[in-house]
Write a structure and sequence with these properties.
It is a single chain. The chain has eleven helices and nine strands. With about 300 residues, it is an alpha/beta fold. It has one domain. The strands form two sheets. Strands 1-9-8-2-5-3-4 form a seven-stranded mixed β-sheet, sandwiched between helices. A two-stranded antiparallel sheet has the order 6-7. The protein starts with a helix and ends in a 29-residue tail after the last helix.
Length: about 300
């Protein structure tokens, strides 16, 4: 039943995404305005995150940033529906600029394996499609709790060039598969700012925008043990339409350090550098500062938010 429901959901999404982009953009902007007026979860979490990273901002600046974040988030959501349901070749024409391509090509040719760290900035689904068009790729993902949602993701990420994408669950067997691919010179993709589980030594506290954030140690462990090249990559929206610039950036020194605090500090520094390019395009509707490794740490900053 989950597969049938997911297939129906896909066709509904495809019909919706057939609307012209100017119409979708107006719908997205209306969604963002409604989120703010109704003070829904997305608005509450984004507002709290902006308070955490900009405690000294004037109220007017914080309100401006909130509007920009919600507008960008809504547009990113509808862009993703479009990219999931239209041919990848058509989607990739929306990438107008590519920066740092030589670094990616050099990493491929080195044959030591490549870890593409793709923060929640811009549109990471379009990045997946670009990577799939250039190389076989395995991406680590945490499946949704909903069986229908998980089946839907398998459908939308298994069409066209995306058929070269292997989705690997964020669990023990999946991690071993990623390591084998890297040792064989393959390419893997990881969302490095996704919250790890608070148990099992999967994360440590590392600074992010001046605050401690519970950060995954997996990327650093894979880099250290495999010797793979780590590149940060993101598709950043340019202009007011659905046009993007693709960026590759070498990882900072320390990303493969044996000390997990050193490695995660380097990781967060790179993500922060990317997010600061355009704060509105980072996923501030995500509770990035939520998880704490023990009860000895400060109260959850999102306490009371629903």
């Amino acid at each position: 039943m989950a597969e049938i429901a997911a297939r129906l959901l896909y066709w509904c999404a495809r019909a919706f995404a057939a609307l012209p982009w100017p119409v979708l953009a107006r719908i997205a902007d209306a969604m963002a305005a409604a989120w703010r007026r109704l003070d829904v979860r997305e608005a509450k979490v984004a507002r709290r995150n902006l308070e955490l990273i900009g405690p000294d901002w004037p109220p007017a600046e914080r309100a401006h940033q909130l509007r920009a974040v919600l507008r960008s988030t809504a547009r990113q959501l509808l862009e993703t529906v479009v990219f999931w349901t239209r041919p990848a070749a058509r989607n990739l024409r929306r990438i107008r600029q590519v920066h740092g391509l030589q670094a990616f090509e050099a990493a491929l040719h080195a044959g030591r394996g490549v870890i593409v760290a793709a923060p929640h900035h811009g549109n990471w689904e379009l990045l997946n499609q670009w990577l799939a068009a250039h190389t076989p790729l395995a991406i680590l993902y945490r499946p949704p709790e909903s069986r229908v949602g998980d089946a839907f993701l398998r459908i939308v990420r298994a069409t066209g060039d995306a058929g070269r994408v292997t989705q690997v669950r964020a669990e023990g067997q999946g991690v071993r598969e990623l390591f084998k691919r890297l040792k064989a010179g393959g390419v893997i993709g990881i969302l490095p700012d996704q919250q790890p589980r608070s148990s099992g030594g999967e994360g440590v506290l590392a600074p992010f925008f001046g605050r401690p954030a519970f950060t995954m140690t997996l990327l650093g462990r894979l880099a250290e043990r495999s010797g793979a090249t780590v590149l940060f990559a993101w598709c950043e929206r340019i202009g007011d339409g659905p046009d993007f610039a693709l960026h590759f950036m070498p990882a900072p020194e320390g990303i493969a350090a044996a000390d997990p605090v050193v490695a995660t500090t380097a990781l967060n520094a790179a993500v922060e550098t990317i997010a600061r390019r355009d704060l509105a395009q980072y996923q501030w509707t995500y509770k990035r500062f939520r998880l704490r490794p023990s009860r000895d740490h400060a109260e959850n900053p999102y306490h009371g938010l629903r």
